[in-house]
Amino acid sequence: MPFTLRGDDVCQVTPPTPLPDPYWVAFSPSVAKLIGLELGDNDLPKDPGWLAVLAGNQLHVGTQTFSNPISTVYSGHQFGSWAGQLGDGRAILLGDINQLELQLKGAGRTHYSRMGDGRAVLRSSIREFLCSEAMHALGIPTSRALALVGSKQSVRRETMETAAVCSRVAPSFIRIGHFEHFASLQNVTRLQELADLLMNEFYPECASKKDSYLELFKEISARNAKLVAAWQAVGFCHGVLNSDNISALGLTIDYGPFGFLDHFEIDHICNHSDHGGRYAYHRQPQIMHWNMACLASAMLPLLELEHSAEDSQELLRSALEEFPLTYAKEWQRTFRLKLGLQSEQDDDIQLIERLLQSMHDSKVDFTNFFRSLSNIKKDSKPLAIPQRNEFIDRESIDQWFTDYINRLQSELISDDDRKDLMNRVNPKYILRNHLAQVAIEKAQQDDFSEVDTLFKILSKPFDEQPTFDSYSKPPALDMQRIEVSCSS
Ligand code: AMP
Ligand code: MG
Question: Of 44, 148, 230, 487, whose Cβ has the fewest other Cβ atoms within 10 Å?
């Protein structure tokens, strides 16, 4: 959808900075198809001009011209504090293609780069590329990654690294921070334009309702509540849930120091720079709710167009209260499915929570345990279940398996059918940090084969893929504590 707002208080024309001697590091044919790109036999664009475009070196290819590359302004709360103006410091919106926005991340300085160099390093770009596509394959709403282009251009971080450009695709990259920006300037006209743009294109059902802005808020909030529930269900930690990294479409965006849980640790912190654990796994729902409170306060002036100040506050406050309910409902629905339960019983939640507590206490691998759960049958004997050996407190896990098997017996579905369904919600393969690390280290030596292998495995996370079994294993001890920080 075109980002149609114009004016230098909203965006700046920003041609990308050329990247010397670019080469393909990774490419996603399925995203290429989404935007209607014609591919050659090697599954790369037929027109070699695309490499130059996706590196930021030219703005036209074939009949396609990106005549108006822009960077947009937003503000936001970072780690709980108001950070003021931020903006696309290293992302350039090239334009629209098949009604999707095409952005280059790391394509050089923009009007909003502040002290930054506008670049992204190969390491973090590989992580963003792989994770965007892996999340999509897991069925989780996300921005997509079209391509990753590398170069020998050096970039200074803690050490010298090389630059890369990740091209990202989404229906829109509008963030909560865009709303906060115009609200902070008390620019109601811009706020309204932004809300209308979003509503007309993506939330048309709200546009036709009375109190359309309130409905828009509720919908954005509901999408993000469901999004976090989906993250929790696959053990995904975003790492930097600042309000400028939260999509107004409920997509996962801005992959930085994210991480998937290996063993289940409820308070796991994936971002090495997050000393207080603000964005720890168990805090994500609460933090997303907090971000929705930021959105509510930014949208307040829109409600005040039709209601008194007091009524507007009350309407938004009660709308905000729907978040934990929507989240809890979705979390319960998803975890029931992870356990293979088709019907709903009151004790299910307790069953799920008891399991998670035991998994936490015994540091059991989150992904593998849920995947293996589908092997349990209605007539399994608790003491013969191999997974019990992964738990320290055998007595309590034996009781849990007993209760779980009893619960399975109350379901009509057969063991085989349940196994099929469970294996479609409990992935075998996730982007574990140690796997990404191996691919990164090879890529830093100009060998991109492991990026490609991971990309292919993770595009079918629910398939057994026996040849790649080792990619489903938890990390060895020395690979467990890979530190990932904001420096990207
Ligand atoms: P992030 O935490 O990656 O979402 O980034 C927060 C803000 O810093 C955003 O406004 C980014 O555009 C900006 N930023 C991050 N890295 C750079 C960089 N290397 N150059 C310019 N701006 C950056
Ligand atoms: Mg960001």
Answer: 487
